[in-house]
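Bump. Still looking for Glucose-6-phosphate dehydrogenase structure tokens.
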Amino acid sequence: MDNSATPRKQLSWAGKKVNQEQVEGELSTLWHLASDNMRISQNMNVRTSVLNFVICAQDIESARRASAILRDLSSTHIARVTLLILDTRSDAPSEVATWITLRSFPIISDIMRHHFEQVTVSVSGAAIKYVDNIVQSTLKPDLPVYLWWLNDLPKDHEIFHRLINISNRVLIDSSHFLQPEEQIQDASAILQKSPHCALSDLTWGRVTPWRELIAQFFDIAEYRPYVMGVDSILIEHTVATSTQALDHHSNPKNPIRALLLAAWLKTRLGWQLSEDPDDKNLDHETGTYFWHMSERNMAKVVTQPLTTAGGKRSSAPLGGIRITIRPRPLQKSAPGTLCMVHMTSSINGKQATFTIQRVDDDDHVLTSVEVPGSARPPRTVNIAATHKESDLLHNELEIMGRDHLYEETLHEVFDLLA
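Sorry for the wait, here they are.
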């Protein structure tokens, strides 16, 4: 049903179009209708939410896709969802349009179901200046506010800052940046200007299994000393082939996952960037990067199995410490997917290699270690859980505070690209 006097925008998936001041009353009516239509009315009259979830899209297709993803979210995250569509065109009319609906999903069976409320708001023209006030009017009081910004960050950072100021946590997804390097640097700058912002990235969740596998190498006592001697890291990431079909929010070369992993390893190993401009090479066109490190700060190494002289700095070994990121053309994998991590380490004249290699499918990787005098078979690990956005969102909605490790890594990426 569409009871609006301006039926120019039709969003059938968003539910019933209402005036903004009618949102609460119309939602109450939908709750009563939902209870009457159930085969049993147990627990159907209880309106509950554990958080406010604000999703900000810059086009209708992205908003529709995000609305579909909500179907897969767990029932533990029953939320008041505000789906915000921003039309930032300079010639767009000043307008605010609102739709409401109840989203329903089963808990145990189709008989036992939960509902959550979804309010879709389209804002255009001069009304965007008041977007924070518009969003606040749709929120449930006294509940945390999670903001998920879809696709590229806005050119006008003021819009983003207005929404950040009313949010407890802010989620982005750098895997969908059209200008990934520029956008990830903007994210670091925005975080520095908003010290109270708790920023996180779904791409960081996609990198987490790789970080865990790297850490597991050195959980074995026999391999632990080699963490202090790592002197070379090679990371490969997928770039799209010329025949690969991409959607309008995909870049054929997106090195963000590789950059995040490289920055995390750099901080965990206590490496310091060389100040010599000749010690780095950034080829943005191909997605190839190279850095030489000048020294290793032993005090910053996470695991210190070897005795060091009071945690002092040590100069880089002969040949230097280096990180290399390079592309690998693949047709079946999404751009930016990690393909391989290869680390070499030298301790007391012994060299060891640690490798994580993607196999034929995106769901599994092969881990292997080559150490003098030790032979261990390769291990196949399933990492399929990193692919679904709904799973990544589920994990992010479990976090109440700040992700300090991600924020530190984000600033390191900024330094690597500077």
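Confidence is low (pLDDT under 50) at residues 1-7, 304-319.

Edit: fixed formatting.
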